[in-house]
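Hi D.,

Good news: the full-assembly prediction came through. Inputs first.
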Amino acid sequence: MKLSEFGEFRLIDMLAKMVDAPPESVIIGIGDDAAAWRTGETITLATTDALVEDVHFKPEQAPWRDVGWKALAVNVSDIAAMGGVPQYALVTLAVPPELTIRPVELIYTGLMDCAHEYGVAVIGGDVVRAPQVTVSVALIGRAGVDDRGRQRLMRRDAAQAGHTIAVTGSLGDSAAGLRRLLSGASADDPLVRAHLHPRPPLSAATTAVRMGVPCAIDISDGLLQDLGHICEMAGLGAVVRTEALPLSQPLRTTFPHDAIALACGGGEDYQLLLVAPAETIRLLRSVSDVRVTAIGEMEEHVGRRPRLIDGSGKEVRIEVTGWDQLKG
Amino acid sequence: MKLSEFGEFRLIDMLAKMVDAPPESVIIGIGDDAAAWRTGETITLATTDALVEDVHFKPEQAPWRDVGWKALAVNVSDIAAMGGVPQYALVTLAVPPELTIRPVELIYTGLMDCAHEYGVAVIGGDVVRAPQVTVSVALIGRAGVDDRGRQRLMRRDAAQAGHTIAVTGSLGDSAAGLRRLLSGASADDPLVRAHLHPRPPLSAATTAVRMGVPCAIDISDGLLQDLGHICEMAGLGAVVRTEALPLSQPLRTTFPHDAIALACGGGEDYQLLLVAPAETIRLLRSVSDVRVTAIGEMEEHVGRRPRLIDGSGKEVRIEVTGWDQLKG
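Then the structure:
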């Protein structure tokens, strides 16, 4: 069977089964936003993510500097979603020999912009030849332990029935930006900016984990797909109110009919989905430096899938496939 | 200017200059086999290396299982060259959607073979779509501190004039194996095995660092090129005796005229080059589980380049370019 028929998520499941159970020092292995293990008194986190030319970006549409920024930012998003602080990056740059030096300089300029923004030190990497540009980043960070020795981590599997579901920022802008980009909009368009230059809400994540938010995931594959991962891991369902979804003014104006669908299934928002008791979310909203919006609740549900309801409580069906690397 | 004219090493220099000086917690940043930083009482190491289809291997020549093995082994080699112990791997697999599942299974089987051999836990990764297969590994390990608080690390910049230069195993087999592979030899040929299935001498490296060997590098680009890095970083020259080079019987038999050139410039041996006082090397030879051969000495020399001499002390010139990713 071809990988395109098999799909990304079945492939990841298959590979995860081929890997041995991790040693006792490992707190979180395959299946969360980042891996976590004990190093003395603290917890070390690690994640990796790659941007591939013509798959994740097209050079004629995405400025190289944004490609560099985004290659690091998507990894910062994974560390933030664990409640960690990013520290050290290793950068593998695959480049065709025919490429000139300038694009590589711009990629690194954007990457260092992002490194400065989030306090990351680039301490190693690799340059390899390849037919197309790929920027692959491995990012290492740390998470803490509170006064009572409890790990300060936000896990995908820690949601409980009755918990409130909240998201940071606004949703759907990145997917709308990609659509605008494909129809010729410039890199300056505000929606296009959201797509090319995502800004993971690191400080909100740090605040959330300190307040005791137990569960988070970064929204990279699309709200419903990522919330679906949380439902599966907790063995729960979830209800999301479409009226509560935080939609930006540019999104409402530019795509009035598709705004909800883009917010639910678009992907690449690199916002945080947080799941915690209602009171914790209320407290977080009052102190967070970015917008935090409650959009629904976790619930006992045999389907273990999120469902959407409108203002009158009626179930809404949206054709959302989310992003599958291999189905494309 | 195109990257093919600029070359890999100038590009790496340029990128290293674009990166800020690392924070105080970092012991070793860009420019060694792996990066190193303090985590409490221990030292954490991290490195990354990728194998790209049609650049580093051809599917019609290299069994997929060997590709998986080698993708991890080349990273183990980097951690070993620092005197560290590999612990955790993140694996990024780039695959074309038209590929079938079987090659991916075989890649992971080989990768897990290597993980078992060297005690590595695969704890995360990523699957992305790309026009060709790439296996990119980020490997994290640890190094220790001795009773007197000194870091147990082997650094590229720690060579001193008068130190003995030694290597593990035999040299040139991998390059000879590649040559055999290109002329149609099967994957079972012993030289081809050395190329497809390198076995970094991790336990020898661990012994070396405990005995106080201060300086090491893994031989990936070719003996003279890698020794050249050590000369540059120490501001020293080096002399290597061709008669002392450890050459395997298959290499001598198969390439009697080119054996020395392959051993000096071939690359991808993934053996260790160790630099230490003569007495330390003598002790290491007597206890190591793999062959350790003294091949020369570090010397004061304005050229800061290694030179080769034959049995009569006459300088030998060998046209050795080493491997440049971008010049190919």
